[in-house]
From TrEMBL:
Record organism: Leucobacter triazinivorans
Name assigned to this protein: XRE family transcriptional regulator
SMART domains cross-referenced by the UniProt entry: HTH_XRE
GO molecular function annotation: DNA binding
CDD domains: HTH_XRE
HTH cro/C1-type domain: residues covered: 26-80
SUPFAM superfamilies: lambda repressor-like DNA-binding domains
Length: 126
């Protein structure tokens, strides 16, 4: 199933938001544990300015750096890959007509359709 431009844009926004949320959560964890940027830098084996750069709103650290920062602030990270293609567009076939369902990437989606005698039901957690 191919996504249209609006759906691709919505997915891109979701990915950016989740990246920002990940970095923000790690910085909050550092502060919650009462750790300074200097302490985190020492644990990571880098300089304090490098930690400050990591914590900037426009930072784009590598996954390895994110893991090292998480370890330094005593956090774990869970990875999850979700196939958004299946929930971006769900079509219901009824007598030759098809209808697209709405999509909200932050909600669970449930959809069902029937094609002749075949019934397909899917539950997807976004």
């Amino acid at each position: 199933m191919e996504l249209n431009g609006a759906q691709i844009e919505a997915l891109a926004d979701l990915l950016v938001d989740s990246h920002d949320e990940l970095l923000s959560s790690l910085v909050k964890m550092r502060k919650k544990h009462g750790l300074s940027q200097e302490q985190v830098a020492e644990r990571m084996g880098i300089s304090q300015p490098a930690v400050a750069s990591f914590e900037r709103y426009d930072a784009n650290p590598t996954l390895a750096t994110i893991r090292r920062y998480a370890l330094a602030v005593q956090a774990s990270i869970e990875h999850r890959v979700v196939d958004q293609c299946c929930i971006l567009v769900a079509r219901e076939a009824t007598g030759g007509a098809s209808r697209s369902m709405s999509w909200n990437p932050r909600q669970s989606v449930e959809w069902e359709w029937a094609a002749g005698e075949t019934h397909v039901k899917a539950f997807v957690n976004a």
